[in-house]
Amino acid sequence: MYTMDGRKRSDIKPGVRVRVVQKQDQPTGKLTEGTVERILTNSATHPHGIKVRLTGGVVGRVKEILA
Hints:
By secondary structure, the chain is an all-beta fold. It is 0% helix and 42% strand. It is globular.
């Protein structure tokens, strides 16, 4: 399975499977897998990952894009 990191907004679209780190999980690096519902970051890139909302309401920064 090929993965890309989530720092470029253009790589992320609603409906894509991703792994995100939620704010409270940043110290441990625990990843949550889900499907992008909405992109919350407006800039083209972000050094810590593009912030998204997953279906189900989880908000986090994309660390991996699942192919």
